[in-house]
Amino acid sequence: MTGLLHALGPYAPLAALVFLAGFVDSIAGGGGLITLPAYLAHGLSPALLLGTNKLSSSMGTSVAAAKFVKETRFGADFLFILLVLAAGGSVLGARAISLVPPEVIRYLLIILLPPVAIFLAAKKSFGLADTSKAHTEGQLLKRSGAIAFFISCYDGLLGPGTGTFLAVAFSRLCGFDLLRSTALAKLLNLVSNLAALATFLYLGTVNVKLGLAMGAAGMAGNYLGSHVALKKGAWIIRPMLFTVSAALLAKIAWDMLR
To answer: Are 49 and 32 in contact (CB under 8 A)?
Structure first.
């Protein structure tokens, strides 16, 4: 890793942060908390920020999704419907980004994040057991479909915390255990990222060279993080979800106060 960072030269600090983001994102989501400020600090134009980040994060998420895919344990029809909804929501969000003021998204997150963080801190057994059989197949499809569409729409609009929101929502509203929820979140997040990336490429708002280079660092981080998550399961995922939720809340509050 040291040799790689040396070879990257001026890109080394950015690559190290993207690697860290990939590690965190593969376990609990929220990698955008690290990558978006890192790209800005590197000097990337704000106009290219979201598109370039989508390119590198899509590459990283593909590794995590491949590692987690065996843990999804869902029927092909169920997954196909959710993947279509996730792609549609993401494209809609990416296309609508110029129409929705960022302040609106921030205020929504300020409302949503504290309950998530408090819930994860208070309920020590959250996500350890799968209670999804309490719902019918139809109920699970409706709930999962709504989660996939609306959170993927947010992913296209902004992005940070998407994996966190997906994993928590699937576990809380559908009853899937956290490992299974995280596995499903990774798969949907990958599709959401690719759909948003296609839209940003169409709009010409991607620094392809930088995104590909940083994508390699993200892939390495995602590989290591997904290995840790699969080995430790909910015991590592739950505290990471809480940490990411709290960090996202703190960053948004800080940005609004500055």
So the answer is: no
**CA gap 193, 154 in Å, rounded:** 11
Q: How far apart are CA 127 and CA 72, in angstroms?
A: 14
Whole-prediction pTM value?
0.80
- Given a contact cutoff of 8 angstroms between Cβ atoms, the answer to whether 166 and 100 are in contact is no
pLDDT digits (tens, 9 = 90+) for 27-42: 877 788 788 888 988 8
- Position 139 scores a pLDDT of 96
Joined tokens for residue 187 = 């798969």
CA-to-CA distance for 32 and 25, rounded, in angstroms? Answer: 8
pLDDT at 148 over 90: yes
Q: Does the pLDDT at position 8 exceed 70? A: no
Which residues 6+ apart lie within 8 Å of 232 measured at CB?
none
In whole angstroms, what is the distance from residue 165 CA to residue 47 CA? Answer: 26
Domain positions in the chain: 10-257
Distance CA 236, CA 153 (A): 27
